[in-house]
Amino acid sequence: MDQRAGKKDERFYQLLQQLQEADFALVELNLYLDTHPDDEAAIAQYNQLAQRRWMLAQEYESHYGPLMHFGHSYARRPWSWIDTPWPWQV
Amino acid sequence: MWIYEKKLQYPVRVSKCDPRMAKLLLEQYGGADGELSAALRYLNQRYSIPDKVVGLLTDIGTEEFAHLEMIATMVYKLTKDATPEQLKAAGLDPHYVNHDLALFYQNAAGVPWTATYIQAKGDPIADLYEDIAAEEKARATYQWLIDMTDDVDLQDSLKFLREREVVHSLRFREAVEILKAEQGVKRIF
C-alpha cells in the first residue's frame, strides 16, 4: 500500500516504538545530567544511546519519511514532510 | 529555536469513543496545573534564573510541549467519532456550540487558560518551589484522571505522564540544592 496514503505497515509501529524507547532513555539521561553533569557513566550511556537513536531514525526515515523539518532530516522527491499520518493520527 | 519531531513522546491509544473523559482531560490541557501552563512557566523563567539551572528549565519546558501533544491526541481520539448527541450527554454541548470538535485551551470546567496560572518571581528559590509544587499538583491530577477511566490503553499513557511529573519534581528539588550550595559558597567570604 502507498505509504503516502497514511496507512502504515507493522514495521512502522515496531520502529516507532524502538525510537520512543531510545528517546525515553535519552530524555531521562538528559534531565539527570542537567543536575549531575559530572557523572561520566551517564554521559557514556547517553552517547551510546544517541548513536543507536541515530541509526533507528535513519531506518525509520528511509521507509516512512522525515521525522524532522527545517533541514534536520534529508528530503526525498516528492516532498513527504506534509504526508499523513501526523502523530495524533497514528 | 525549536525543532518539531513528527512522533509522540509515548504512544497514545484509546479503546473507545469517550467524550466525557475527553472533557476531564482538558484539565491537563488548559488547566492551571496542565501541560500548557508547565511549558510556558519553565521556559519563561529561564531568562532570570542562575545559569546552572537554565538547561534543566529548557529541557523540562520542552518535554512539557511533548506532553501537551499527548493530551491533545487523547482528546482528539476520544471525541473524533462522537455525535452531537454524545457530546451533549458528556456535558460538552457548550464546547460544541463554540468550537465544534476543535481543541481549546480551557480546563475541565470550560474556564479558558490564563497567564495568571503561572508565576515568575525572579527569585530563583521561589520560582523553583513553584515548579516543584506545579509538578506535584499535576501528578495528583493525573492520578485523579486515571481513577476516572476504565480504559486500560488510556490509563497506560496517563501513567507515563504521571511518572514524568515525579521525575521532574525530583530534578527541580536537585536544582534547589544546587543553588543553595552555590549560595553557601559565596557566604564564606
Commentary on this structure:
Chain A has 90 residues and is mainly α. Chain A has one domain. Chain A is built from two helices and no strands. The radius of gyration of chain A is 15 Å and the shape is elongated. Chain A starts with 9 loop residues before the first helix and ends in a 26-residue tail after the last helix. The model of chain A has no long low-confidence stretch (mean pLDDT 94). By secondary structure, chain B is mainly α. Chain B has a single domain (19-111, 122-187), classed as Ferritin (Up-down Bundle). Chain B has eight helices and no strands. Chain B has helices at 19-25, 27-30, 35-45, 54-79, 84-89, 93-99, 124-147, 152-187. The longest helix of chain B has 36 residues, at 152-187. Chain B starts with 18 loop residues before the first helix and ends with a helix. The A-B interface holds A 16-17, 19-20, 23-24, 27-28, 30-32, 34-36, 65-70, 72, 81, 86-88, 90 and B 3-12, 53, 55-56, 59-60, 63, 69, 72-73, 76-77, 167-168, 171, 174-175, 178.
Short description:
The complex is a heterodimer of chains A (90) and B (189). Chain A has 90 residues and is mainly α.
Query: Based on helices, strands and strand pairing, what is the structural class of chain B?
Result: mainly alpha
Q: What percentage of the residues of chain A does DSSP assign to strands (E)?
A: under 5%
CATH architecture of chain B: Up-down Bundle
* Number of beta strands of chain B: 0
Q: Rg of chain B, please?
A: 18 Å
Could you tell me which chain pair has the largest interface and how many residues each side has?
A-B, 26 and 27 residues
Anisotropy-based shape of chain B = elongated
Q: What is the count of structural domains of chain A? A: 1
Low-confidence segments of chain A, given as residue ranges, are none
Averaged pLDDT of chain A: 94
Q: What fold name goes in the CATH topology slot of chain B?
A: Ferritin
Straight-line N-to-C gap of chain B:
40 Å
CATH structural class of chain B: Mainly Alpha
Q: Kindly give the count of domains of chain B.
A: 1
